[in-house]
Specification:
By secondary structure, this protein is α+β, with helices and mostly antiparallel strands. It has a single domain, classed as Glutaredoxin, CATH 3.40.30. Helix content is about 35%, strand content about 20%. An eight-stranded mixed beta sheet has the order 1-8-7-4-5-6-2-3. It is globular and about 40 Å long.
Length: about 180
Amino acid sequence: MTKKIFAALLAAAFLLSGCSDDSAAGNDSPKTAQASPVAKVVPNFSAKTIKGEVVTNEIFASKKITIVNIWGTFCPPCIGEMPELGRLARSLPADAQIVGLVCDAAEGSPQIQTALKITQEANADFVNIVPDKNLMSFMANVEAVPTTIFVNSKGEVVGRAIIGADVEGYKDELEKLLKN
């Protein structure tokens, strides 16, 4: 299956389920997942950012904790939190960072330009990755976006996953994880 077809199927699944479990009911309040919807370790990957730069899982090595925000260009809550994520990225301590995974983008897809426009307009100048097949598999059990997870310097998923736009929740979880 080509990357474009896989990305289209993944985007369709997200569209059919809505941005979040409660979006159809008009409730955008975030939920804390009991278990992470992704594997316990980020797989080896080699992908490009929305700006065309090559990135690998080495991106996690230089920071104690990375906030990984899984989002889609079709998702109003995802787009709505981008300005706040941009401000958060600029205010993080030296041992933390934010990385976005654009779940509905694939190499060569129009969603890359959409994601670039969204992040530029929101002044959210942090790394946003166009997932390769390994990252697509990693995100396979994510049922709603935004979903935010936390990854340590070894590429291990730590802490709790947060489903829904909740920048204050991300800050709280990051603070707890940095203390460990």
